[in-house]
Amino acid sequence: MKRLPWFVAAVLVTAMAVTVALVRESAGGRASTMSHGPAGWLATRLYLEARGVRTAVLGRPLQRFAAEHGGGTLVLTFPWRTVPSHEINEALEEHLAHGGDLVVAYSGEDSGAEQQLLGLDWKLLEPAPLAPWSWRRFVRRQWELAAAVPELAPRRVLVWAPRWLPLAPRGAEVLATAPGGRPAAAIFRRLRGRVAVLPADAFANSRLEQAGNADLLELLMRRLQKSWTFDEYHHGLVAAGGSDPTLAAAGRITGLLVVQLGLLYALALAALARRQGPPWREPPPLTGSAASFLYGLGVLHHGLGHHSEAARLLLRRVRELDPRLELPPALAGEAAGAGGGAAAFLALAREVARRRAGLPAADRGSGSPADRPGPVQGDQGDQGDRR
Q: Residue 190: beta bridge partners?
């Protein structure tokens, strides 16, 4: 019980360390241009900068993007960490109406955020299996996207297989197709701008070393405008002064929740560290010999005044143990008179012991009940017992 608080503390510290390690490993989130992980887009942003493309990272909501930038290429990479606002489609339509281009890098997961953008239609390719032994094979599937334009041929684009695919609208230019011939990457016109849809994994840090993936990035760089802005607001990046009241309120609520959880952990540790109820004491083991047990038993009977019963029982047990032992009838009278106290009983016991040992009887005086002639009531009762 004393080790339990230390065990709980060790578990909490280990959980915090693992959480911090996971957060550091996934800093910036998947498909984020701030992430160094295999699924991040940091290499894509650095590659574009090296190729002369002006890049920027957006840490504000998209509602004022069109008014502040008035064009360029806006890049949305999924999955997002935050829930988008209801006005995001209006902001994207305004950006396209100003002649801007839009890149939608979809994750292909069952995410409501990306499947509600611009009213695009989506198709579920394969439902997730319920069997645990099939899950690993399902999530580790890879696709080789076949080139659909001469700029990519004969290269192939390697990506993780998504579960959902956007349906390219009529008149779209298909850049690459999935196994089965379905469009996986395409460009189509919307209002005064262009929209490019492609798997987010195509430009991940771990994919750009593939020749087909790098060629697809080069193709988009040539087709779209030369100023690219990456939306990091929905990946958790908030610029100074760019937070909206809803996000600020959510941050305060999250802070209060963390404080309450810390208080609960502290109270749990305090409760576990304090002993509940009286301390448990193990009973001491009984040690000793039969003499101590018999002595205790004798003290008990002595306190209850069982001297007369003990004297009669002593004579009965001696006769049963040694039938040839001759005891005078007067001893039965002494047994009956042992109710006077412990001294009479001890005198009787010593006399029986002497006779069993073959020693002569002790001289206890003429006043002793053993010298009185004739049987007594106790002796008759004892003879009745023998009969």
A: 193
Contacts of 238 (CB under 8 A, 6+ apart): 59, 60, 247
pLDDT digits (tens, 9 = 90+) for 80-116: 887 777 788 999 999 999 999 999 999 988 767 788 8
Place of tokens 């008014």: 67
- Residue 157 region by backbone torsions, left for phi larger than 0, else alpha for psi between -120 and 50, else beta: beta
- Are β-strands 227-231 and 73-77 bridged in parallel, bridged antiparallel, or unpaired? parallel
pLDDT interval class at 5 (50, 70, 90): low
SS3 155: coil
* CA 221/CA 321 separation, integer angstroms: 117
**CA gap 363, 369 in Å, rounded:** 12
User: What is the distance between the alpha carbons of residues 273 and 7, in angstroms, rounded to a whole number?
Assistant: 11
Q: How many other C-beta atoms can be found within 10 angstroms of the C-beta atom of residue 162?
A: 21
Partner residues linked to 166 by β-bridges: 122
Backbone angles phi, psi at 87, to 5 degrees: -90, 10
Q: How far is CA 368 from CA 154, 334, 359, in A?
A: 133, 9, 19
CA distance 168 to 148: 14
Name the residue among 218, 167, 195 with its Cα closest to residue 102: 195
The number of CA neighbours under 13 Å toward the Cβ of 242 is 17
CA dist 192 and 98 (Å) reads 7
pTM of structure:
0.58
Q: How many CB atoms lie within 10 A of CB 153?
A: 12
Residues 6 or more apart whose CB falls under 8 angstroms from that of 259 comprise none
C-alpha to C-alpha distance for 126 and 153, rounded to whole angstroms:
28
Contact indicator for 350, 314 with CB cutoff of 8 Å:
no
Q: β-pairing, 101-106 with 156-160?
A: unpaired
